[in-house]
Description:
There is one protein chain. The chain is of the alpha+beta class and 401 residues long. The protein is built from 16 helices and six strands. It has helices spanning 15-28, 63-71, 119-130, 146-150, 169-176, 199-208, 239-244, 248-254, 262-275, 280-292, 296-309, 314-319, 327-343, 348-361, 365-378, 388-396; strands spanning 5-10, 44-47, 52-55, 77-83, 87-94, 97-103. A six-stranded antiparallel β-sheet has the order 2-3-1-4-5-6. Strand 4 (77-83) and strand 5 form a beta hairpin. The longest helix has 17 residues, at 327-343.
Amino acid sequence: MGLFLHMAITKLNDLSKVREMISEAANANKDNMEKLQVKEENCQYTEYDSGIGIAFNDDIPSPEFLAAFSLKTDSPLLFLYIYDGDFWGYTLYDKGEEIDDFSTMPDYFIKSDNKTENSAEHAARIAECFRVSEDAIKNYLIAWTDEMMDNEECRAYSDDISSYGDCWQMTDFMEKLGFPYEEEDEEEDEEPQQENISKEMIKKALAERENIKDSEFGFISTSYPEEKNTEELPNVLDLDYINSILNPETRRIFELTTTGHYRQAVIEFTKKISENSEDANLYILRAYCYLALRNRMEMDRDLGSALKYDPDNIKILRCRCPVAATKNRCKRHIEDLTRLMELDKEYYEIYLLARAWRYYWTGDTDAACADIAELIRRANSWTENWSRDFVYLCEVLGISL
């Protein structure tokens, strides 16, 4: 598991009052599930000239908790997070309301149809709340692109320590706000990169494919040659699936979403979960609301909880394997895709190709080539009918079909 970091900063410069308010907010939020509660004694505080920083350590503050805390102060509360060592983001609260939300990887969990990320608007809100120059922070508040992440020298500002694509860029942003983050030096274990591509197994598979009968595999699905990927297959957050799992009681709650009251629906579903914590459908319904609220961390946690109680749900597994991800997340994708290959053989080759890509992204080229070899051997009757994704993966690995 990668790095998870949850912090908040406030301009309020009274530590005893901050401690008291966190205790009061936690008590006000006590009806939430235990994993979403925050205990004051578990928090770590840092006093700055600009205000106070709060590290939540093992606790995970819910949006309701953060809103309740901000309601008790005269200052905005900025909740910052690093997710699994992959990206960083924040949610800004003021007077009990969420007024801004930002992520460096907005498509991390679910591909977004809304590609608009207005850096100027984000910067204006932060600048007003923390009395800093918009020009000093606006370069942080843009979604990372592949080009940015591939260039380790690409930084938001010349005096930054971290580059785009590095989750610790969040600490450069915090320092610009007057809240420098100090951490203990830790050496990260570098994962060895596989340099030798197993081209021989590819050559062998290409030579053998004409003599392989479909019956050797027991099945060969018909979907692989089509231009499809896991994101295009129906998943658990599709509205058709959501409607299929509603009962009269949950439908009444879900109707709140039709008028845009997603946050109230979250509160109601949280109450239902506290009554029946093993109902996978309740987590799915709340995940749908979190997605609409762009709270991807909570959405992902709810999908994980739903999978715990419904481990063979194909559509949950599909939803957890979006294309936009980074190295740490791809490791979980590999596990989910392997499980999908066992459960959902109709789309076996789609999952196999998706897994090959993730092996490649994590540096395991031997495993990627093994998956490619299996795809080739399974495709004896398809001749040149390869998908573009498959051809491109072969090209980047230096494999000639």
